[in-house]
Amino acid sequence: MSRVAMLIDESICMACRGCQVACKQWNDLPAEETTQRGTYENPPDRSAVTWQLVRFREHVQGDSVQWLFLTEGCFHCGNPACVEVCPTGALKQDPDLGIVTVETDLCNGCGYCTQFCPFGIPRLDTDVLTGEGKAFKCTMCQDRVSNGLTPACVKTCPAGAMDFGDREAMLAKGHARVEELKQAGFPNANLYGEHEMGGLGRLYVLKERPSLYGLPENPQYPVMANLWQGLLQPLGALAFGAAAVGVLGFWVIARRNIPMEEVE
């Protein structure tokens, strides 16, 4: 199978949040207790149990106001920094589909993925008693996709704003839609995700520039990501090992100074 991608046309998204519900239902994620904050955007943020969230952005231009919606979830980068920095191999990228997943059984809760992701996607669920943590995020319904089905969010979208399939085909559809929008009076229309971070697995058709949707205009692969896994982490392990050897050495020296009669 070739690399897949999700195409989200935010120009026709009506923010019904059916995708949020479908994500929770398919992945058996609990609801979150929230309060009315004066906006339909709810819950206030993604979390370990909310992997997809529709963001509401109010855009004022002259005397007109328009809502810009962004269906936010994992971007499934072509060059994922989270996979690079994960010390346990819990984060993986499917070599064919390109989907980035998390094996929670392998996750040690270090949180490196949350720090190095340029989009801030992975979230930790930490036990307040033990301090043990696990990372969670959208997996693009890999279990469905690998069996020939579309992600649950795409299947449920009533507006038809979400599409899924071969990434090249999604790019072609995205570019065609952008041209339609430009001809319809949206000169700033653009396709986000074609080249960013090695090419994203979550592509967006936008009416306005990315920053108005809360997206980074030019997300960069963290410079420290390669150094972290290739140099800094091994040095940290070496330093820890050296410290352990030092402690053991001091114990041996101290032990040798104990009179044998005390041992007996």
The largest sheet, given as strand count, sense and whether it forms a barrel, is: 4 strands, mixed
Distance between the termini: 70 Å
Q: Structural class of the helices, strands and pairings? A: alpha+beta
CATH-defined fold name of the largest domain: Alpha-Beta Plaits
Mean pLDDT: 87
Radius of gyration: 23 Å
Task: Assess the beta-strand content as a share of residues.
Answer: 15-25%
- Count all strands and give the number: 10
Overall morphology: globular
> SSE string, helix = H, strand = E?
EHEEHEEHEEHHEHEEHH
User: Helix amount, in percent?
Assistant: 25-40%
CATH class of the largest domain: Alpha Beta
Low-confidence segments: 236-264
- Assign the CATH architecture of the largest domain: 2-Layer Sandwich
Helix count, per DSSP? 8
**Strand numbers in spatial order across the main sheet:** 8-1-10-9
Count of structural domains: 2
